[in-house]
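Subgroup meeting minutes
Present: P.N., E.W., G.H.
Scribe: E.W.

1. P.N. recapped why we're keeping a running log of single-chain structure predictions: easier to compare across weeks, and new members can see raw inputs and outputs side by side.
2. G.H. added today's entry (367 aa).
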Amino acid sequence: MEDFTLSEEQVMLRDGARQFLEEQCSTDRVREVMETDRGYDEDLWKKLSEQGWPAMHIPEEFGGAGFTFAETAILQQEMGRVLAPVPYLSSAILAAEAVLAAGSAEQKGARLPELAAGSKIATVAIAEPGSGWDEAGVAAVATPSGEGFHLSGTKAYVTAGHVADWLVVAARLDGAVRLFLVAGDDIAASKVVTLDSTRPVSTVDLAGAPGELLEASSWPTVERIYQVGAVALAAEQVGGLERVLEMAVEYAKERKQFGRAIGSFQAVKHMCADMLVALESARSAAAYAALAIATGSDDARTAAALAKSFCSEAYFTAAGDNIQVHGGIGFTWEHDAHLYFKRAKSTELLFGSPAFHRERLAAEVGL
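Output recorded in log:
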C-alpha cells in the first residue's frame, strides 16, 4: 500500500507556504481584492511567482521546478486556507496540464516557461452555458482557415478568463473534441457576478477567434484536465475545511453563555467533533488522489472522483456548521465565515457536483 503521509521536505514546504500566506494574504486583503475589476491580487501573484510556486510540477526542461503534483497540491491546500485570490488553479494547474498532456515539443517550449515564471496567466475554457461537464456539452466549433483555425461558440465558468493572456479552448473539429490555444486579446470575456467573489469566473465569447491546435488533444485530454482540477480543488477544500474548524473551535472556547464557554455544551462539542472527523477523512482522500496523479497510478480516475465528491460535501457542511457555531455574528457580512461558506459552495460545483463524481466513481468500480 502506498504511503501518502508527508515527507520531511513536504512538511517544510507546507509550513513555509502557510507562514508566507498568513503574512501576505489576510482576509482584509481578500476583501479588498474582491472589489477590484480584475479580482485577483497582482502583488501576491508576483511574490508567489518569484518563489517558484507556479513552476512547482512543471518539468525543469521547460523552466519548471521539477517536483510532482503532490507538492503542487500542498500549495493549493495552503491557498485554500486563506482563500488566496490568485489564478494559480487556472494557470499553474489547469492550463499547464493541458499543454503538458497534449502540446507538441514546440508548444511546450513556448508556453510552459511563461507559466512557470508566472509572467503569463492562462486558463482553460471547456464547459458551455446550460451544459454539464461531459463531452456532449461541448458545442463550440473550430473551422479550418488557411494554416490555422477559427473558433466560434460561448464558454462558461471560465476561471480567470477575463485576465488570461491565453486560453486552452475545447471545440469540435470534424465532430471530435479538440483543444486549441487562443490569445486572450482575441476573445470577449465578461466577468460574471457569482456567489463566490473570491474566485472570479467569466463567460467567454469566442467570436471567430484564431486558434492553434494542440496536436495530441482529444476528449481523454479534457478528462485528464478535469481529473487534475478535481484533485486540486479537493486539496483546496481540505485547506478551507481545516480553517473553518479552527475558527469554530476558537470561537467556541472564547464565547461565554450561561456563565460557561459554549464549547462545553454537548451540541457544540459534537458539531466540532464531526468537523474534525470529516477533515481527517477528507485529508486522506485528497492526499491519496494527489499521489495517484503524481505517480500516474491506474487509480487516478477513481481517486479523483472519490476525493472531489467527499471533500466537496465535507467542506460545505463544515462551512455551514462554522456559521452555526458562531450564531448571529456568523451571518454578518463583516465576519469571515460567509467567505468560506461561499467558496465551499463554488468549489463543490466547479468541475462537477458530488453527485456527478459519485456517478463516475460508481462507473469506475463497475456498480
